Structure prediction request, 433 residues.
Amino acid sequence: MFTQVNCKFSFQNCYICNEMKPDIRIEDFTYPLPEGRIARFPLPNRDDSKLLVYTKSAGESPVSSQFKEIARFLPADALMVFNETKVVPARMLFQRPTGAIIEIFCLEPADPSDYQLSFAQTASCSWKVIVGNLKKWKGDRLTLCNPENDPVIAAVGLEASLVENNGKSCIVSFSWCSGESFSQVMGHCGRIPIPPYLKRETQEIDLTRYQTCYALREGSVTAPTAGLHFTEREFAQIDARGIVRERLCLHVGAGTFLPVKSEKIADHTMHSEPFEVSLAFLKKVRAACGGPLIAVGTTSTRCLESLYYLGVHCIERGAPGVVQQWEPYRDEGYSVSTAEALDALIAYVEHSGKAKLLSRTQIIIVPGFRFRLVNNLVTNFHQPQSTLLLLIAAFIGPAWRQLYDFALAHDFRFLSYGDSSLLEKRSLTDQNE
Prediction:
């Protein structure tokens, strides 16, 4: 199932000297998704959505329920992890003196690179961005489009200058004169970037509904959509079952929208995303090690599973680094237990004297991946031939086809504003059957 390839880096730059890449064709992970099954708008209430349950306690076949009933399907006394990232209005329209419209899509801060510091700036900052209509931008200073002559937007005086052109992405410097924070500037001047497959412009409803009710930390350019269904009603029911709720923060990047264009997943470059976890959170995860751990969404899953490899970094190199795309699949495997890895990571953070850990992950989760922390997953229904669908296939094995067929046959709604599912991990033996 796996094909060995030569390591792209020297031993000094990457300790993975025998990288393994799965020989997986993306065309094997598709299904028919009619346009009419894509949910283009949210339902009136968050928890009005359906819930597909595929857990061992519910039986070997999927069960159709309502999201507001999710608590009764969850294992009691579990740890449940949510991603508290908040979507920012990252799309802004500028114009050249000639009148040409240039769209700037903010990805992540460049100077200052810290999200909180960047959002707190009151005069200027630089961001890594994607520029629409880049060929028409000759490097001149752009002014923000204000077709309705809104006095609030006019008072901001937002301008953009091209600092660096890297082709696919650029560095742009923003400056403004209102004295407000960049977070406030974005709120005045930007638009929430809803997924392109919705095939519509952002509307008023998206300002609240394309955001979880517990969103706190600004930085994402797309929502962790598994969390869109939760309300205070579900939280109260979850708490009543003795389930502990904890939060991490992984800022979701535009790479989530990128299709897999290569024939084999081994040739696809996974996007990298920043995340932050507290020392207290790490200790909660360590205490729950071996017990039921529920991840809300694929972003929480990628972050949680990355913690193991950061702990391995600490053991093997003395400090954590970026979790590389194919790191989980190295030739010699891993002899470090999950508990040992978490202990090493906790010790490193404690020794640093900091209360939190900042890192990045490029991890890709495909069939053959060994899940070390997450046992249960709350997630929506994902696009055909996507890395998110590969993650689902890695988590429950070939049964993903049965589940998606069931969802299509029972009028489930798909993608970001669609319905949800609760899945329980199958063993590697189950997955490979």
